[in-house]
Design a protein that fits this description.
Layout lengths: L4 E3 L3 H11 L3 H12 L5 E3 H13 L5 H12 L2 H6 L2 H17 L1
Antiparallel strand pairs: 1-2
Length: 102
């Protein structure tokens, strides 16, 4: 774990980034609101990944909805939210580990 801290973008900026990346209505209605709860929150790497895992675990596991969710990770949502290459790489590794564990 790193001791470095990270602050999520403010709500309006975060929503703008997310919608510009993928405006799928299921994501806008079901996934982004959970992520937006983190807007402006200052956290460390563990907290950053935990918030992504929470949003993902609350998302419906219907195949069509999972396809939409996969789009945002294919489009590098982690990099989009962090805009910090070092944190993004560490977070991607941790996030993949947590997804395999669930």
């Amino acid at each position: 774990m790193t001791d470095k801290t990270y602050t999520f973008p403010e709500r309006s900026e975060m929503l703008k980034r997310l919608v510009n990346m993928c405006d799928d209505q299921d994501l806008v209605d079901l996934y982004y609101p959970v992520l937006l709860e983190s807007a402006g929150v200052k956290t460390n790497l563990d907290g950053f990944v935990a918030r992504l895992v929470l949003a993902t675990s609350n998302y419906p596991t219907i195949p069509s909805k999972l396809e939409a969710l996969q789009k945002v990770y294919d489009h590098n949502i982690i990099g989009l939210l962090t805009q910090n290459a070092e944190l993004a790489e560490e977070a991607k590794k941790m996030f993949k580990f947590f997804l395999r564990a669930t």
